[in-house]
Design brief:
The chain is of the alpha/beta class and 159 residues long. The chain has five helices and seven strands, in the order E-H-E-H-E-H-E-E-E-H-E-H. It has one domain: SPOUT methyltransferase, trefoil knot domain (Alpha/beta knot, 3-Layer(aba) Sandwich).
Amino acid sequence: MRIVLFEPEIPPNTGNVARLCAATGTELHLVEPLGFKLENRYLKRAGLDYWPHVRLFTWPCWHAFAKRPDRPAAERWIMTSAKVHHAPVPLQHFTFQPEDCLIFGPETRGLPSEVLSASPYHIRIPMREGGVRSINLSTAAGIVLYAALARTGLLDAWN
C-alpha cells in the first residue's frame, strides 16, 4: 500500500500523513512541486520524531512518478480528490487490493484532469449534506488508508 500526495501545499498536513505512514508502514510518495521545503519546521513538528520511520520518496513531477521503474505490476491508482465528489464508488463499497496506491490532490485545487484521467479508479468519502465541501487532507488520507488496510486484511497482521 502506498500514499501519494500530488503537489501538497500545507506542511502540517504532509507531516500528519507522514506520521500516519510511519504508524502503518505505508510508503509516502510526494510529487513536486511542493508548497514548502522538506526542512519546514511545521512539517517536522507535525511528523514529530517519526520521520526516520517513514519510507519517503519524492518525484519531480507526475510523469516521473507514473513511469518509475520499480512500480509493481499489480499497482492500481486509487484517486480521491475534492474534485471527485461524484465518484461512482463510495469508499465503503470499493474493493481495495494490497498493492493499491492511494492518490490525493493538493489541498486547494484537487487533482488535475491529467492525473484523474490516468486511472479509472475514483473513490469518494461519503459526507452528510450540509455545506462541507471536503475533509482535511491528512484526515482523508487516514480514513482511506485504514479502510483500505481493513478491506484487504492487512490490519489483521497487527493484532
